[in-house]
Amino acid sequence: MKKNHSESYAKLSLDFINFVKNYYDSGMKKVLLFYFLxxxxxxxxxxxxxxxxxxxxxxxxxxxxxxxxxxxxxxSGLIKYKxxxxxxxxxxxxxxxxxxxxEINNHAILDVPEGRSTFTGSTVVDKWNTAGYGPExxxxxxxxxxQDSKKQAQDIAFSVDGGKxxxxxxxxxxxxxxxxxxxxxxxxxxEKAGRWVMVxxxxxxxxxxxxxxxxxxxWEWLSDFGPLGDQDRSWECPDIFRLPVNGDLNNMxxxxxxxxxxxxxxxxxxxxxxEKFIADEPDQYPLYIDQGLDYxxxxxxxxxxxxxxPVYTLGWVCTWDYAQQQPSEWGxxxxxxxxxxxxxxxxxGVRLFQTPLPALTxxxxxxxxxxxxxxxxxxELKQISEMENTYEIEAEFDVKGNQPFGFNLCEGxxxxxxxxYDPLSQNLTLDRTNVADTDIPKFDRMAFxxxxxxxxKLLLNIxxxxxxxxxxxxxxxxxxxxxTYPGDxxxxxxxxxxxxxxxVKLNAWKLKSIWNRD
Length: 518
Description:
Blueprint: H1 5-28, E1 44-45, E2 76-81, E3 84-88, E4 92-95, E5 101-104, E6 116-125, E7 138-146, E8 152-159, E9 167-168, E10 175-179, E11 182-190, E12 195-202, E13 207-213, E14 220-225, E15 235-245, E16 248-260, E17 264-272, E18 277-279, E19 287-288, E20 296-300, E21 302-303, E22 311-316, E23 339-346, E24 349-356, E25 364-373, E26 377-380, H2 382-385, E27 390-398, E28 405-412, E29 415-422, E30 427-431, E31 446-450, E32 457-465, E33 468-473, E34 478-483, E35 492-497, E36 503-511
Parallel strand pairs: 2-21
Antiparallel strand pairs: 1-5, 2-3, 3-4, 4-5, 6-7, 7-8, 8-9, 8-10, 11-12, 12-13, 13-14, 15-16, 16-17, 17-18, 17-19, 20-22, 22-23, 23-24, 25-36, 26-35, 27-32, 27-36, 28-29, 28-35, 29-30, 30-31, 32-33, 33-34
């Protein structure tokens, strides 16, 4: 029966939000529904995907990807194949460059059995036709939630049209240990062993389990990893990938990322032999992906075109404490700017570095430059204020004294976000206790990150985008991400210092909107 797409989609979105809220309130504390509204229509541009989306709604980021409207949680099923990046979550999107996205709207729901829901997972390209759906088939592996028993088991669905529509496997689940805390699989292909490997969270045991399969349907247990590092509350949304140390392809390390405490992510560096993951230097953990307030459930893009390509990742910019209370008008959910991962040797050992996707520079407009010795007090930077909270700043502070300094961002109407650095403690502090122009429970928080000076200099790369901020310090050694939700008149930017021993050189650019590509 033909239905009105707008009304049908609005009802589905509302049903989904209510389901999440009810399940969340029931004590689960986290439910990250997967991406499965799949699609019977082709890719539409983001502006074409909804008659009512203006992409100028209050708080709407202009260079971060957001849906036309609906809920958007964990990035799931991130792949690159035949030159296209694809990303799923209660909808699907594709991109040529990780900057401009086409949102593929779904009006043909994946037909799951009554009483079952779909949670977070991953997607693979079955080039080898191991599952029997064809060498071009995409197979999604995700957690199926059984609403009566609360059981979580792993299901699959397959696509033979490039990921636009999926078909539910009629013999699901393919992996079931009769657990209520067993979720969020990531699957990779181990060419050496000629089989698929799944990493999946045993959430309350604080473990990641490894399973192997020849056909994506029959799975055997290989090993468990954990607990280690941050063991509070819960582990979920694991991801695993390889990186060269200092760019040396003859010195590769495996990285295992695990979301913890429904609020942040930790990572482990080590070796994986196809069955077991062994972490290097167990005493060094926990190590965190992001030191800010809102970064969670990230995954990397699995590149089926070039296995030696850079490793890019996306994360969910939110925290479960207030995910349902986000004041956005278009829907709920923001994904981070794409980041590139590298491994580098530091004084503390090998560490994960994150830098903004290099191609983001194509969004830069006219450059504003500022170079001054800092004097005690506050100096407004009007040229950046005029960029209306859609800008990038590259700042280099030459630190000679011990007095704090920093930026006031999203400033106006008596509110601001304060980003400050204390040379004595070497702490970079993000204070958003007085930035949002609306009341959000548990939102007024601060974050701290230790950032040692490099040859007496502090390097910051800051992205402000309406309701978000992402800060890359020391060339990506430390990252802080947070939601902000300032008012329409909170565009002010100023620089401050408590002393006169420091100097700054900065460049700033207004960044173009990804919603106005032409």
